[in-house]
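Intended use. Records like the one below are meant for learning the mapping from a protein sequence to its folded structure. Do not use them to infer anything beyond what is encoded.
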Amino acid sequence: MKMSRLIILVFITILGLILRLFYLDSRPVGFTWDEAALGYNAYSLLKTGKDEYGKVLPVVFKSFGDYKPGLYIYFTVPTVKFFGLNEFATRLPSAILGTLLILVVYLLTKNLYAPLLLAINPWAIHFSRGAWEANIALFLTTLAVLLFIKRRYLYSSLFFGLTFWTYQGAKMFTPLLILTLLIIYRPNIKKLILPVLLGLAMLIPLILNFGSQSGRLKVFSVFSYSGDLVRGITQRYLNHLSPKYLFMSGDWSNIRHSIPYYGYFHLPEIITILMGMIILLRANNQAAKLLIGWLLLAILPSALSRDIVSGVRSLPMLIPLVIMSGIGLSKLKFFYSPALLLSLILFVDLYFIHSPFFTAKDMLYPYKEALQIIEPYLKDYNRVIFTDKLGQPYIYTLFYYKIDPILYQSQNKFVDNANGDVGYVPSFEKFVFQKVDWRTQRGDSLTIFVGDSFELPEQDMNPVNLVRLGEVYYPSGLHALRIVALK
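Structure written out for the chain above:
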């Protein structure tokens, strides 16, 4: 590699790293319960070698009634060891591998434009800044493809196998992508015997746990709903190729999966992606066939789910599209650079400054502040009734108070949902997690109450023994939670 090319690649990688690490603990604002569960289970492994349920070094982790492949949690153990149990440590593995993906894309394309666009891509940045197993799986998948093309089949098999240990969506996408590679590149069968055996060996622990992994499949599968399946799947599939999804709104069905009022690609990339796609179709070589096949297959896990679009399940689309955009940009070069620079500035402004006003509620922003308000008073009260309206308050209590995993494992009271969706924990120590019923509970002395303005209405905050401990507001100024206590 020429020195000038290496310098540019280093600059691109540093730019990508900055965009993924800057304010990592607070952007996106808030912290999802899945992130809290990943972090706390890594903390539990670090302290006890067991997950929150007391299972020793599990391959698959139970989480709110769902079952998750556990590789992300194991990646998080060293970051929690080094930085402590916090948002930064929990999100750091995704940020690091999201940055390394830039280098993998360069090695895959030998084109500086594709890694540059990946470094500044809104989709890649967003999922690298949260604790998303899908982002780790994307890195592993892309690295496995690179190694396959380089005919390093044993290493390729290893990383393809690890995708199954990382993310549920890999169970569909990875086998289809491997089949596509075999059809296009037609490797020598004899050279595949050992890699295939390695891949099968890696699947054995997952197969042994398969019976307990069905958790929410029925809830999220499109096949669980009545209606015209063919029409529904087709509509979901095409939604992921729409300009609205790619360039304007991102995942409009779930604000946690994208940036409000911004697409997964910068608007000027409409031209570069179309140009790159045309060039690939005309080339009709192995690389072109792989990228087109990759793109078409990447949508399937999302199209077969209940959601009309899904930014997390369709994340593998990112790689072929960003490479197409890089091919297109290589033809336009400096002519298009000012438009992309302006788009990046607008995106950074929206993401780091304005997005909290739109996303805080969906990102469960109030939990941390509420628990910080409560903490100094816990020793003075016998019970805390904490609303469960926002969902899974127990995992935030474990996470932010760094509850000893041995203590929690001995008292775990998780209640499964009979319908297959997420369950709940009704109580732990002095915490009771339920909706606040102020009319019947306002006589409970030595109790702290955490609820919203409907559960704890301002006009009823009049008992003589009531103590106001604090209020939590969203960044927009809207009221989130009220914390009061009865002496």
